[in-house]
Amino acid sequence: MEKATLLNDLATNHTSEEAPVNQGILSMAAAQETGMISLSTRFGNFEFDRAQALNMPNGLLGFAGYSEFGLATPPGDGFGQFKILQSLQDADLSFIVLPLPVDNGLIDREDIEDATASLDGNIDDMAILLIATIRKLPDGSKLTVNTQAPIMIDAARRQAWQYILHNPKYNIQHELA
To answer: Which residues form the domain of 30?
Structure first.
């Protein structure tokens, strides 16, 4: 399966232009009845199908208690190729992520293949996300991604892991131009 199609199949679309700030509302009753979860997040209102959720058995670094995530396409045009990795357990927990193909120029294919093998995955089923950070500076902003600990998604199993690469050439604040 082509990687772009794989990530698009995982991602839900934004459902509303209006987003109450810091409300973090989960509609758990509706989720139990229909399998759908409605969330009001800082990025807008989203609806996720629980059957499409990503299971992260170990959570993310620093967020081990959160294991169920959805991938969403942000509203508007300002995000470009970025997606939102949204916790389905806490509407206030989300990350801007950058999807990468296996052959991407930021992470060596050999390192991706090693990570995939250690996760008992198939390279053809793997998708990669990098957590992005936007820092405001006096003269603008700086966009970085974490190339040292990519999120490896086995789309066939709907499982994901944040995998730490031990190659010293990767860092947690790789600046994007």
So the answer is: 3-175
